[in-house]
């Protein structure tokens, strides 16, 4: 095949393109600036186009689950999509778990999935698969271009689909010949509609409910947890006596000093029911009523008490931020409402390191405007309330429950917010799912401090084994939840991927290691033996 050299205008848009050129130029023109990639043969023309079409940063990931998780983290911090570059059906399947998390978190993501050339599919080559079936299982929008001349238009529509409120997963399946054959010029960016406005009736109904004397809980999800509506919600609560809640796991929440008091719902369903039992009304902003993470014998799945009426201020695709501002005005809430003060906890005394002491240390030393990405689960979740009076920060967590998201998520967050320190809290079991993210952090010199809680166990599953009333908790069963024999050596694992690392077994050594990591630039890892 002859070498192809497109005509590139001064604006960076090609005028004589193949499909890959027109695709890449369209993505850049539509505001997509980063590609988290794990390419193969079918994607080589896209890879080649990176040298010809300016404006796209390519970030190599050594596993597709890192690419998709990084795209999720990037979207959470920027509000706009990155693209992923994945290799046929198996490559897409490798990335599906973290696309599930992105979908549950309403993160905008554009997947570019290479496939066999259109004429090659009939031969059923080894990598032939039902790519559409994989994509449709996890994407809101899926398309396969009919020819190289429709690639650009399809790409523009993929970006628009991803950016539809509150955020969607869009997947464009790119047959190899549609990438190398001649194409039309890049397509212009399409207009992205904003979130739907909330009807005034919904604001009026919420205002009446908040002033009817009944005890009210307000459950918030989505962009209101870090947007301009968050402070308005705090002022509404201060005026009416309502209590603000968020889910156990949130896509992104503004937290720490200067944020309003928002209580995290407990993880266990029975504890959610107990906490909400005192409320007579539940007002939803950006989400649905809470449900149990799993079904458990003898326990409820629906977690709103029967006596608690459910009202909706804003649905997920609606403008919850403006609705909260309007609600604050409707109840005559003062703009000077109660916010968390800056009052980080004191450092713990010296002694053996515990999960509680580790989180206390993180909260005490956290710098201003950091980003915390948390998948410590049993080690971090019980102590996350210590962050409430820490320095102002954004808090990201595991939205879809598919563990192994947080190392990639912190990677993407660092790409999307390069001027902010990212602190990643992760259990050793979770970290092994996508450990390759450390290599990408080293390669890109990303400013991420990773704390690995090394308890040598899938600790949460030891609890689950009992809660589901499994018949056996003997040695064979427990061995499947244990990470000893051999124990993971996180210092050597990290250093083998180019990340400087230390091990901490006491509170003092952990504090010293964290101070050092926070004062430096670039990726660091601390193995916190608890």
Automatic annotation (TrEMBL):
It comes from Pseudodesulfovibrio hydrargyri. GO terms for biological process: small molecule metabolic process. Residues 18-122 form the Thiamine pyrophosphate enzyme N-terminal TPP-binding domain. Keywords: Thiamine pyrophosphate, Transferase. InterPro entries: THDP-binding, Thiamin_PyroP_enz_TPP-bd_dom, TPP_enz, TPP_enzyme_TPP-bd. One of its GO terms (molecular function) is thiamine pyrophosphate binding. The gene is ilvX. Residues 387-527 form the Thiamine pyrophosphate enzyme TPP-binding domain. Signal peptide: none annotated. This is Putative acetolactate synthase large subunit IlvX. SUPFAM superfamilies: Thiamin diphosphate-binding fold (THDP-binding) (SSF52518). The keyword NADP does not apply. Pfam families: TPP_enzyme_C (PF02775), TPP_enzyme_N (PF02776). Belongs to the TPP enzyme family. Its EC number is 2.2.1.6. It comes from the Bacteria.
């Amino acid at each position: 095949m002859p070498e192809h050299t497109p005509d590139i205008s001064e604006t960076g848009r090609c005028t004589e393109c193949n499909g890959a050129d027109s695709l890449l130029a369209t993505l850049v023109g539509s505001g997509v600036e980063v590609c988290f990639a794990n390419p193969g043969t079918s994607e080589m023309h896209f890879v080649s186009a990176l040298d010809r079409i300016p404006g796209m940063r390519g970030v190599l990931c050594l596993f597709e689950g890192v690419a998709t998780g990084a795209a999720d983290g990037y979207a959470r911090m920027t509000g706009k999509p990155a693209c992923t570059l994945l290799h046929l059906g198996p490559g897409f399947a490798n990335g599906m778990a973290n696309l599930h998390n992105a979908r549950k978190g309403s993160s905008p993501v554009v997947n570019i999935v290479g496939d066999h050339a259109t004429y090659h599919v009939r031969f059923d080559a080894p990598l032939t698969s039902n790519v559409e079936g994989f994509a449709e299982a996890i994407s809101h929008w899926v398309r396969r271009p009919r020819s190289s001349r429709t690639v650009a238009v399809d790409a523009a529509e993929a970006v628009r689909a991803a950016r539809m409120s509150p955020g969607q997963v869009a997947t464009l399946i790119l047959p190899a010949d549609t990438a190398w054959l001649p194409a039309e010029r890049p397509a212009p960016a399409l207009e992205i509609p904003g979130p739907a406005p909330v009807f005034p009736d919904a604001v009026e109904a919420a205002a009446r409910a908040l002033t009817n004397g009944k005890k009210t809980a307000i459950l918030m999800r989505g962009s209101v947890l870090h947007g301009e509506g968050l402070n308005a919600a705090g002022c509404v609560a201060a005026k009416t006596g309502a209590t603000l809640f968020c889910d156990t796991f949130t896509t992104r929440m503004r937290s720490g000093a200067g944020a309003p008091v928002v209580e995290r719902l407990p993880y266990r369903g029975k504890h959610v029911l107990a906490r909400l039992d005192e409320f007579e009304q539940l007002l939803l902003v950006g989400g649905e009523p809470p449900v149990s993470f799993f079904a458990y014998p003898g326990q409820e799945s629906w977690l709103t008490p029967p006596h608690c009426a459910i009202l909706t201020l804003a649905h997920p695709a609606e403008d919850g931020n403006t609705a909260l501002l309007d609600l604050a005005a409707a109840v005559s809430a003062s703009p000077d409402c109660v916010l968390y003060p800056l009052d980080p906890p004191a450092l713990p005394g010296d002694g053996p390191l515990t999960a509680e002491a580790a989180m206390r240390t993180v909260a005490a030393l956290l710098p201003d405007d950091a980003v915390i990405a948390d998948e410590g689960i049993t080690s971090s979740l019980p102590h996350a309330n210590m962050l409430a009076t820490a320095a102002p920060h954004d808090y990201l967590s595991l939205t879809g429950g598919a563990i192994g998201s947080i190392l990639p998520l912190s990677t993407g967050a660092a790409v999307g917010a390069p001027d902010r320190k990212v602190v990643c809290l992760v259990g050793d079991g979770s970290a092994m799912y996508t450990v390759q993210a450390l290599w990408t952090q080293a390669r890109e010199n990303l400013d991420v401090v990773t704390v690995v809680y090394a308890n040598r166990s899938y600790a949460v599953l030891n609890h689950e084994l009992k809660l589901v009333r499994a018949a056996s908790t003997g040695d064979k069963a427990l061995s499947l939840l244990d990470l000893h024999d051999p124990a993971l050596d996180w210092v050597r694992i990290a250093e083998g991927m180019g990340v400087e690392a230390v091990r901490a077994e006491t509170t003092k050594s952990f504090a010293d290691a964290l101070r050092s990591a926070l004062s430096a630039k670039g990726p660091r890892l601390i193995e916190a033996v608890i």
